[in-house]
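Reminder: ligand-aware prediction takes two inputs, not one.
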Amino acid sequence: MALLPILRYPDPRLHKKAVPVLRIDETVRKLIADMAETMYEAPGIGLAATQVDEHKRVVVIDVSEDKSKLLALVNPEILERSGEQVCEEGCLSVPGIYDKVTRSERVRVRALDAQGEPFELEAEGLLAVCIQHEIDHLDGKVFVEHLSQLKQGRIKAKLAKQARITA
Ligand code: NI
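Here is what comes back for the chain with nickel (II) ion:
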C-alpha cells in the first residue's frame, strides 16, 4: 500500500469528471487500498479518487468512531433521496476550511464493492452527507462550490496564502 498525494483546492484537476470503472481488477483494488490508507492517515472520513488525481468513479468512506467500517463504493449512484439536513463539512482537499452545507437527509445508493459485486445501501445523517460529498467530487465538484461566491473567493485567497507559506 502507499500514501497518495491529495490535490488541493483550487487545483483545476479537482473539477474533472470521473469515468465509470468498467472492470474491477487488481489495479482498482490497489487504488481502493491506497485511498483507504491515505484517508486514515490524513485523517479523514471519506476520499474520492478525483482527490488523488485518479479520475475513476471510486470512493472510500469510514464514518465509524474506531475506523473499523471501511466502505468502498465503485460507480456509486444515488437512487433516491429525501429530507434535508445542514451539516458543517470539511474536505481533505480544502484544509482548515469548514462550513455549513445543505444536503439530503437520507439517500439510497447503489454501487459495486471491491469484488465487483453490486449492493445497495440506505444511509442517513453523517454517512448520507459523506456519500453526497464524495459523489460530488467524482462529478468535479468541491463542497465550497455549495457556498456563496463571496465565501468561495475568500477561501481561495486563504488557501493561496497558505500555499505560499508552506512552499
Ligand atoms: Ni472532500
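The chain has a mean pLDDT of 96. Strands lie at 46-48, 58-61, 71-82, 85-89, 99-103, 106-112, 118-124. We will return to this case in the review session.
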